[in-house]
Amino acid sequence: FESELGAQAPLGFFDPLKLTGDGSVEAFKRRRQSEIKHGRISMLAAMGYMTPEITGKFPGYLSPSLNLKFADVPNGLAAVSKVPAAGWAQILGYMAYCETSQDQSAGTPGAAGEFGFKVITSDDDEVLKRKLASELANGRLAMMAIIGMFYQDGLTGSAW
Questions:
Q1: What predicted TM-score, i.e. pTM, was given to this entire model?
Q2: What does each C-alpha distance from 110 to 51, 60, 121, 152 come to in angstroms?
């Protein structure tokens, strides 16, 4: 797997736990697909964690029936306890929809994290390879960043 996409300088192919030691291509592909999906989610999460702090919050009400304004919800982990149960139900419902609305069985585009929304494209194979490698690297960085923000927020009460 040393020549696979994502084996990049300075570490090259990095597998300290020897998860690819059995040589299973199927297991490697499943792990890579999970890495891509988690990287994409982490990139969105990192941006979502920072954006309200940088740009401010939406005007108006998060929950008019509870008289809860967007401005009343703190940034970071403190927001977890402020969002109403109906809000969490909507979030979990949307997550379930995203997971079940596409065929993600082995060999399908959904299994590879492709759901018809193509942002990373190129007619040149080398350019496409570089873009996909960048997505993997940025996803890896975002996974570490969001965990770091959660950890710091949990310790200090602020991710900043």
A1: 0.81
A2: 29, 37, 17, 34
